[in-house]
Amino acid sequence: MSTSSNGVDGGVFAAVDIGASSGRVILGRASGSGVSLQTVHRFPNGVVEHDGGLRWDFDALFTEVLAGLRTAATVASAQGETIASIGIDTWAVDYGLVNKAGELVAQPFSYRDDRSRAAVAPVHAKLDPSRLYQTSGLQFLQFNTIYQLATERGLDGLQALLIPDLIAFRLTGVRRTEATNASTTGLFDAVAGEWATEFFTALGLRKDLFPPLIQPGETVGTLLPEIAAQVGLPQVTKVVAVGSHDTASAVAAVPAQGENFAYISSGTWSLVGLELKHPVLTEASREANFTNERGVDGTTRYLRNVGGLWLLSECQRTWAAEGFKPDLTALLAAAAALPAGGPQINADDPYFIAPDNMPERIRAAVRRTGDVLSSDPAAITRCIMDSLAAGYARTITAAERLAGRSVDVVHVVGGGSQNALLCQLTANATGRPVVAGPVEATALGNVLVQARAAGAVAGGLAELRRIVATGTSLDRYQPLVAARQGCVN
After folding, report:
1. Half-sphere exposure of 320 (CA within 13 A, CB side)
2. Which of 121, 184, 256, 284 has its CA 20 to 30 A from that of 64?
3. Do domains 12-246 and 254-437+458-489 have the same CATH topology?
């Protein structure tokens, strides 16, 4: 995927793309012939210990968003362009509480905080888990919004805004809840595509706790005068709803042909699943802990959260604190040289959610299986890669069975698509070819939904994916009998 500013003539769009560890503001240029991305601002993100828990420093994040939009406006102007709109995507589940005056009453809690664990049983006492699943279709995770909200007190006069919606509100003054992110709350009806108001009632929550829903491609509003002045953009600049759950944007940009594909959005977390026309709300699906989340154009992202590269990044953080800072390429090469069949862990065990000494956690988890893992970073890295690939394979096999869909190819998008070892091990474990890329799937999906809303591109998801596929360099990995590594183009 080109990262230059040349070659695409159809419109320029600003994508605010924030993950759990970093954020970016990107200028995207799109037409029917392709998309180009130009990152103009990067900034760190991460949880902080504050006011009795793990929270996000939202004020700092928003300051960085404004700085990025200001840079984007300058860059676009210097190139004789006008930004047509702004789209925002972030992680899901977390929210900020805003009072009637529009003030954020506290920095938002992070899903990595353990406060919601104690709320699970009280919620299930009021709403049977089977009933919850039959309506929301949501995978049980202790940090789902529904459990976080059950820990709150004094919600009178407050409104909950999911993180991308909170950013959009700060930019426009308009309160809306984008549907793909709403579907991750546990308070959303997966079939009707509306709030499950009976759940609000059962839990003693106001039905207007969240703002009204908005769909990807619809306009949230235009910039507030003071925001427009700060960032150097016209006040008429639109903020357009995209797949504001970053995985929804990423899946929209999977360069797949046809329907029989599985996707892995590989980053801090791995989101592994299928794209369906309708949710799967069976008891077997609930017992397998699959989730039905909203996708762009009303699709269903049928998936499971599987552990991700958070495991490796946390190991790197621990090793660095101990004075060992291995080059990632060399570390992966050393891991690839190790024989197959080594110890594995359950990579999506909640035991690994919170930050801590991850190498020792992984070794302890291996010991509980009766196996032994050395403290060598290469061995720990190989354990992570093998465990992730095995988790991907199990999840795809289960999704096929539960959804009645066969998979011919596995698409890996996001940062993990650059990890040749992980991609090859995934091909080996699934027994299917893996197509890796684009790395920037989330930003591409964000930009393409904006571009379609502006009329710069046209068509459904198949057409958007064709645009991505024609302009992206993809790596292909064939399953190998032996666990040796290599890219087969």
Report:
1. 8
2. 184
3. yes
Domains of the chain, by residue range, sit at 12-246, 254-437+458-489
For residues 480 and 477, give the distance between their C-alpha atoms in angstroms, rounded to a whole number: 9
CA distance 165 to 176: 6
Asked if 17 is an active-site residue, the reply is: no
**Mean pLDDT, the chain cut into blocks of 10 residues (489 residues total):** 44 94 95 93 94 95 98 97 97 97 97 94 97 96 96 96 98 98 98 97 97 98 98 98 97 95 93 97 96 98 93 96 93 97 92 89 96 97 98 98 98 96 98 97 98 97 96 94 44
pTM of the model: 0.90
Asked if CATH classification 3.30.420.40 holds for the domain at 12-246, the reply, yes or no, is yes
DSSP strand pairing (475-477 vs 434-436): antiparallel
C-alpha dist (Å) from residue 26 to 123, 155, 168, 273, 304: 40, 36, 16, 27, 28
1: nearest Cα among 26, 19, 22: 26
254-437+458-489, what's its fold? Nucleotidyltransferase; domain 5 (3.30.420)
- Prior bond of 438 cis (ω within 30°): yes
Judge contact between 66 and 230, C-beta under 8 A: yes
